[in-house]
Automatic annotation (TrEMBL):
It comes from the Bacteria. This is NrdH-redoxin. It holds the Pfam family Glrx-like. The lineage of its organism: Bacteria, Bacillati, Actinomycetota, Actinomycetes, Pseudonocardiales.
């Protein structure tokens, strides 16, 4: 089973859209997902801070700034 994490930041409008997309897609496919605030960890902020939202699939970076729906669905079906 895959696991999706959306790296977000408080007040990030693009992050809110990404969370909505991921919630819908993961809900349809029965995949668990969560969010993590990049500003809660200095390493995350250094790694992802300029590119939020960042979508991780199984702890590997899958994409950033927006959800590429077809690509995410394909990754979660594999």
């Amino acid at each position: 089973m895959h696991r999706v994490t959306v790296m977000t930041r408080v007040g990030c409008h693009a992050c809110e859209h990404a969370e909505e997309d991921v919630a819908r897609i993961c809900g349809e496919l029965g995949v668990e997902w969560t969010t993590a605030d990049v500003d809660s960890d200095p390493e995350w902020r250094a790694e992802y801070g300029d590119r939020v939202p960042v979508i991780l699939v199984d702890d590997e970076e899958h994409g950033y700034w927006k959800v590429e729906e077809d690509r995410l669905r394909a990754a979660l079906r594999s």
